[in-house]
Every structure is written in C-alpha cells, then in structure tokens.
C-alpha cells in the first residue's frame, strides 16, 4: 500500500524531473503566466544568450499592471496613447517580446484582457494538478483550482521560459481548516482576512498551505480564488484547495480547458488528487466559521484585522515589542488612535477591484448593496474596475454597470488599477480608501495613501455611508 | 554567461557598511524594461555627494568594488546586481553580503568575495593607487605588493562561475531528462499540453 499523501505532495511528485542528493528537485512547470513588469529582463536574457522559449504553448502573456483603466480606444476605434512614457515602454516591450518569441499574447484592447490572475482561471489556462508560476506574488490565487501556483523572480521567469522547469526544495505543509457555516453578511474575503489575522503576515513562511473544511468546500470557485489569492499575505507561497465537482463544473467549456476524451481523462486524474485519509501536515490551524465577522484592517499589514464592529487596538496591548512599535507606526501613518471605533472612520475613496475581488460574484455582491442607493457626499472617488473584459461584459449584460454608475461609481476598463501605485489610479496622500485589494502597505495605493482592506459588499457599504460600516445593517 | 577566471583592475575603495539595495539602485528605476542601462542609476544617492569614488576619474571603469559589512541588504530586487554590472563592476569584495544579494550576484555572473575586515582595510589602501587582482581558480586576491588573501567560495558556485554556467545553462544541460519527462506527460496526461491553444 502506498503512503498517504497530501494534495501538495501528489502534485509535487508528479512534476519531479530529477531529484538531487541534497533534496533539491528540478520541477516541471505546466503553466507560465507573464505580464509586463517582471518579464522584460527575462526576455532580454534569452535574447542575449540566443535561447528560445522552450514551450510557448504552455505560456500566456497579458498586460495589466501599467494599463490605465480609462478608455483605451477613441470613438473611431483608434487606440489611445498611454501618457506615462515608462509605462508605455513596458507595455510595448511585452508586445514586442511575445511576438519575437512566439508567446501567446492577449492584447490590451482584447476582450479577454484582464488581470493575469483573473484571466488564467477564466480562460481555463489554470488547471487542477498543474504547476503554475508567474512573476507576481499573488500567483497563489490559482491554487483555488487545485494548481500548485506560486510567484517567482525575474531570473526564475527567464529560467522557466528557457527550460520550463525550476530548481526547488519542497516546502513544509500546513492545513488551514475552516469548519462550520458562515454567518449572515460574511464573505470569502472576510474568511481570508480572518485567516491572515490569525496566522500572521509571516506565519506561513516556508509552508505550502491547503485550505480545507466545510466553509471552503461550500464556497464558489470565485470565493475560493479570493481566499487563495491572499496566501502570500500570511507568508505562504502557495494556497491550495482540493479540486472537486465545483472545480470541474467551473472549468468545463472554458476556451483553454481540455475537451472530449481529454476532458474525461483529466477529470479522472484530478479526482485522484485530494489529500488521502491519514496524510500528515506539518502544521494545522483550525478556525470556526461562526467566529468570523465582516472584517476590516486598521493598520499597514494585512494581519492587522478586526471585525468592523471592533475598535482600533492599543499598540501597548501587543505582547511583543517589535509589534508594539510597528502598530504605533501604523496608527501614525493611518491617522488613527487606539480605542477609536472602526465604524466612526470616514473614508474618501472606494476601490472595488484587484485580482482578489474583481470577478462577477464580487461585482454582484457590491451592486446588491448599491442598488437604489447613492455614494455619500464625502466620497471623492469611487472606482469599480472589473478584473477582465469578459467580467465587464457579463456585468453589463446583467445591468450592474448601471447600478454602479447610478450610485455614483466610475465604471472602468480592466486592470490592476488602484491596487498598486503603478498606473494613473491612485489614492491621494493622506486620504483613506476602503479597498477590496490585498495589500495595505504604506504607499501601496500611492504615496501617503491609507488603505482599509474589506470585502466588495463592505466597500459598497462604506461608499453609501461615507465611513467604514457594517454591511449587515444595509442588507435586506 | 562569460566564464570568470581572473579579474584585474582598479577598485572603488568605498568601504561603506550596510550598502542597501536602495542605495545601489533606487525604486524609481524599476519601471525599466532592460537589465542594461541601469548603470546610470547605480549608487545615485552616493553619487550626489561631492568627491564620491564613483565620479573620481582615478577609478573610472574600475571592475571591482570594495565595501564594508552587509553589502546588498534590503529588498530582493535583482536590479541591484544588474545596475552594478551595467557600470562595469564584476566583483565586490566585502566582509559579508546579504544572502539575496550574493545569490542575485551569482545568478548574474558577478563575484561576491568575502574577506575579513583586516584584508579589506589593506585592500582599500592599495586600491587608492594600484590595481587589485582576483583569481577564482586559486581563490586569491593579490596586490602588486605581495599581499595575498585567500577566500572561500561554495564549490558549486565556483564551478558555475568558472565555466560561465548560468543556472539556465546548467538546466539546459539536462535537456534529455526534461524531454523524457515531457514525453511521459504527453503519454500519461496529454491534455496538459493539448489544452493550450491560445
Ligand atoms: S491586482 Fe494588485 S495584487 Fe493583483 S496582480 Fe495586479 S497589482 Fe498585483
């Protein structure tokens, strides 16, 4: 009888090209997503060494980080120029490099364009049991479909382009189990914020995590993508979820998913992947769903999580000295004081988007709160940025765009937008933003910007009231 | 990558401790699309100081940099190694390096030579007037004045640097194994490749 193995071990074992004496393995990479920021030097390295891309057919490139989210073509259908010369240069380089090396490329004005981590699952490029990499730390998102997915640096991007492999040491394994039933108004984003709060920003370092339990099992694929997306925020390079019937139903018929007999063979293999009874994890963390509330962050680390009904903690309440110091620094930056009720905190900006929360279910959840309501007078900017052109089209077909615009939101083109200060969408210095993105680091949304991470429905609630609010009070 | 055997030439006698990656290349340079050209931004903040070694004609084009403890600390940006190489610096001698910087240096064919502080002090003296000689095969740093310092280096890294093997090149040498793996997958799980038709 073979030894009981975890999902992670099964995927790992299936991808070992060679195992070295020191335990390092050459691991085959099935899927490689490429965007404009971390790839130019990798392509340049290939060019300098005269090397081709080994498997363009396993590679997919799409621009997202630098793209402005305002209109990309004029009324006559002509492409509009990008004002920032360096952003334009990075975007043009991706287009050139993919053409030169024969890598499939989704153009900035194509309907399939979107945030790389939204596009992969949506196209069926991401598959269960695959190894998937991208030069971006939120690559963990694809683990929601049962892919071993993680972010890599530029030298590694080049290594994968040239060899379709990476030299890796196996990580430790951690199970994070969320059992029970989620309460009224509690979303997948609240679940992952609760997990990050519990495990801590560095608690998963050195681990590959598997999210399990009834809450994860009952969650939609889109919800699972929001959860796995933030694995890196608790330090884990990958956040896996076992593939199941929901996964197969989500993938079936996607443009790049297998078809016919291939589909049947794939599903048969995917069904063998879930962790065996009796397999061991190096660490297990258990959360009770009943204890998870709609959450919000108060500080400048994603681990700074409290229920929206809570108060800003006193830095002195932290046991460890470095955390006390960090908390005080966070409060100074955020312009908050200990003991303040989160629900009294006024916000001027709302951002609904990013690879964490820009899929159709996210937009539906936000629109459900906004229907028949309007943003508060203190809101200076409210952006809703669909994760891809296909999400945008779907939302428009459902009339969600009108719900958002009638409520006073700006309905934008897909991209990373205000998740990071790289394109024109930024939060002004000193202003506060209720954001559905994944990082509240100092300056992440622009120099001096103050970020509160929340779910899409919570962002909508904050838009309506002009302050951080408990969405449950606005739900019918 | 070019094989490294000896590096000979003038050395910037910087001597500074805790040179971080922001000092080597500031964040504003990360929107670039090239490894090349970053040399213009290398040590930008230090170069604002009058009389800095980088703008002293005495050391123009020096291939070696001599620094203090903890060289390359800070972020993981590979741009730091690229910026130095683009300025023509192919070796750094220091008492210690950050792990990430030495790995990035190695991945880009740059020598990170560790020597004790006494040796650094002596080399900084010499560097002000004369060239320095680094010999990878013999693992020595020598001067025209009979100084001879022996340094340690990981045998695997020495092998790679000496033969100009970058990691990509090394893995490509295992091409037969990768191809065999691909053939197995094509037979067992044909949909892995078959699925992607962008
Ligand atoms: S949306 Fe934000 S987190 Fe996601 S890939 Fe873009 S910049 Fe990174």
UniProtKB/TrEMBL annotation, chain A:
4Fe-4S among keywords: yes
EC number: 4.2.1.33
Pathway noted in the entry: Amino-acid biosynthesis; L-leucine biosynthesis; L-leucine from 3-methyl-2-oxobutanoate: step 2/4
Residues annotated for [4Fe-4S] cluster binding in this entry: 355, 416, 419
Cofactor descriptive note: Binds 1 [4Fe-4S] cluster per subunit.
Keywords on record: 4Fe-4S, Amino-acid biosynthesis, Branched-chain amino acid biosynthesis, Iron, Iron-sulfur, Leucine biosynthesis, Lyase, Metal-binding
Enzyme's top EC category: lyase
One Pfam family this sequence matches: Aconitase
MF term (GO), any: 3-isopropylmalate dehydratase activity
UniProt xrefs under InterPro entries: 3-IsopropMal_deHydase_lsu, Acnase/IPM_dHydase_lsu_aba_1/3, Acoase/IPM_deHydtase_lsu_aba, Aconitase_4Fe-4S_BS, Aconitase_4Fe-4S_dom, IPM_dehydratase_rel_enz, IPMI_cat
Catalytic activity entry: (2R,3S)-3-isopropylmalate = (2S)-2-isopropylmalate
Cofactors named for this entry: [4Fe-4S] cluster
Residue stretches making up the Aconitase/3-isopropylmalate dehydratase large subunit alpha/beta/alpha domain: 9-466
Record's function text: Catalyzes the isomerization between 2-isopropylmalate and 3-isopropylmalate, via the formation of 2-isopropylmaleate.
HAMAP family: LeuC_type1
Homology family: Belongs to the aconitase/IPM isomerase family. LeuC type 1 subfamily.
Quaternary structure and interacting proteins, as annotated: Heterodimer of LeuC and LeuD.
Name of the protein: 3-isopropylmalate dehydratase large subunit
Record lineage: Bacteria, Pseudomonadati, Pseudomonadota, Alphaproteobacteria, Sphingomonadales
From TrEMBL, chain B:
CDD domains documented for this protein: IPMI_Swivel
Organism taxonomic ancestry: Bacteria, Pseudomonadati, Pseudomonadota, Alphaproteobacteria, Sphingomonadales
Enzyme class per UniProt: lyase
Pfam families named among the record's database cross-references: Aconitase_C (PF00694)
Aconitase A/isopropylmalate dehydratase small subunit swivel domain ranges (all copies): 1-117
Function: Catalyzes the isomerization between 2-isopropylmalate and 3-isopropylmalate, via the formation of 2-isopropylmaleate.
Annotated protein name in UniProt: 3-isopropylmalate dehydratase small subunit
Protein family per UniProt: Belongs to the LeuD family. LeuD type 1 subfamily.
Pathway per the UniProt entry: Amino-acid biosynthesis; L-leucine biosynthesis; L-leucine from 3-methyl-2-oxobutanoate: step 2/4
Naturally occurring in which organism (per UniProt): Sphingomonas colocasiae
UniProt keyword annotations, A-Z: Amino-acid biosynthesis, Branched-chain amino acid biosynthesis, Leucine biosynthesis, Lyase
A GO MF term: 3-isopropylmalate dehydratase activity
Record bears the keyword Manganese: no
Keyword Cytoplasm set for record: no
Subunit structure, as described in the record: Heterodimer of LeuC and LeuD.
Catalysed reactions, semicolon-separated: (2R,3S)-3-isopropylmalate = (2S)-2-isopropylmalate
Listed EC numbers: 4.2.1.33
């Amino acid at each position: 009888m073979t030894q009981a193995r975890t999902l992670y071990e099964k995927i790992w074992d299936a991808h070992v090209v060679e195992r070295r004496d020191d335990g390092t393995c050459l691991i085959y990479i099935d899927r490689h997503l490429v965007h404009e920021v971390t790839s130019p030097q990798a392509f340049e390295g290939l060019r300098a060494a005269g090397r081709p891309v080994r498997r363009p057919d396993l590679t997919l490139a799409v621009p997202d980080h630098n793209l402005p989210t305002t209109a990309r073509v004029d009324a006559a259908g002509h492409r509009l120029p990008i004002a920032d010369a360096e952003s334009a240069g990075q975007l043009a380089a991706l287009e050139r490099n993919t053409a030169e090396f024969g890598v499939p490329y989704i153009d900035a004005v194509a309907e399939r364009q979107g945030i790389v981590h939204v596009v992969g699952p949506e196209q069926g490029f991401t598959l269960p049991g695959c190894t998937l990499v991208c030069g971006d730390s939120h690559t963990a998102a694809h683990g929601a479909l049962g892919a071993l997915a993680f972010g890599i640096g530029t030298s590694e991007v080049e290594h994968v382009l040239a060899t379709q492999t990476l030299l890796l040491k196996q990580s430790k394994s951690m199970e994070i189990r969320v059992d029970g039933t989620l309460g009224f108004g509690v979303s997948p984003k609240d679940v992952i914020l609760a997990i990050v709060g519990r495990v801590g920003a560095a608690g998963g370092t050195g681990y590959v995590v598997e999210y399990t339990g009834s809450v994860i099992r009952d969650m939609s694929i889109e919800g699972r993508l929001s959860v796995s997306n933030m694995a890196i925020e608790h330090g884990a390079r990958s956040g896996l979820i076992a593939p199941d019937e929901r996964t197969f139903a989500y993938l079936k018929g996607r443009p790049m998913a297998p078809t016919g007999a291939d589909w049947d063979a794939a599903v048969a293999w995917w069904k063998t992947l879930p962790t065996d009874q009796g397999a061991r994890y190096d660490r297990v963390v258990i959360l009770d769903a009943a204890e998870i509330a709609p959450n919000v962050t108060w500080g400048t680390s994603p681990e700074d999580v409290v229920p929206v009904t809570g108060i800003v903690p006193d830095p002195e309440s932290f046991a460890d000295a470095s955390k006390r110091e960090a908390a005080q620094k966070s409060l100074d930056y955020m312009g908050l004081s200990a003991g303040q009720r989160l629900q009294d905190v006024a916000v001027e900006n709302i951002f609904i988007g990013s690879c964490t929360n820009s899929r159709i279910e996210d937009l539906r959840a936000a629109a459900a709160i906004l229907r028949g309501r309007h943003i508060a007078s203190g809101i200076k900017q409210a952006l809703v940025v669909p994760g891809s052109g296909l999400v945008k089209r779907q939302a428009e077909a459902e009339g969600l765009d009108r719900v958002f615009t009638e409520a006073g939101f700006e309905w934008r083109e897909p991209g990373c937008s205000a998740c990071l200060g790289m394109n024109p969408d930024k939060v002004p210095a000193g202003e506060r933003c209720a954001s559905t993105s994944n990082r509240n680091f100092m300056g992440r949304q622009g120099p001096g910007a103050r970020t509160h991470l929340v779910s899409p429905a919570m962002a909508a609630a904050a838009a309506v009231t002009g302050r951080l609010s408990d969405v449950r009070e606005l739900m019918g | 990558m070019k094989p490294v055997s000896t590096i000979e030439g003038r050395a910037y006698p910087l001597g500074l401790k805790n040179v971080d990656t922001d000092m080597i290349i500031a964040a504003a340079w990360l929107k670039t699309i090239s490894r090349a050209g970053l040399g213009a931004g290398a040590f930008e903040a230090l170069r604002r100081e009058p009389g800095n070694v980088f703008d002293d004609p005495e050391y123009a084009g020096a291939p070696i940099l001599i620094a203090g403890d903890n060289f390359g600390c800070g972020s993981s940006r590979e741009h730091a190694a690229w910026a130095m190489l683009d300025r023509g610096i192919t070796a750094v001698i220091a008492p210690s390096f950050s792990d990430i910087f030495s790995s990035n240096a190695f991945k880009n064919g740059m020598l990170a030579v560790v020597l004790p502080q006494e040796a650094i002090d002596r080399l900084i003296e010499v560097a002000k007037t004369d060239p320095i000689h680094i010999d990878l095969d013999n693992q020595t740093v020598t001067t025209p004045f009979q100084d001879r310092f022996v340094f340690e280096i990981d045998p695997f890294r020495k092998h790679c640097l000496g033969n100009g093997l970058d990691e990509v090149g090394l893995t490509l040498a295992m091409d037969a194994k990768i191809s065999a793996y691909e053939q197995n997958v094509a037979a067992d799980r044909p949909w892995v490749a078959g699925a992607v038709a962008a």
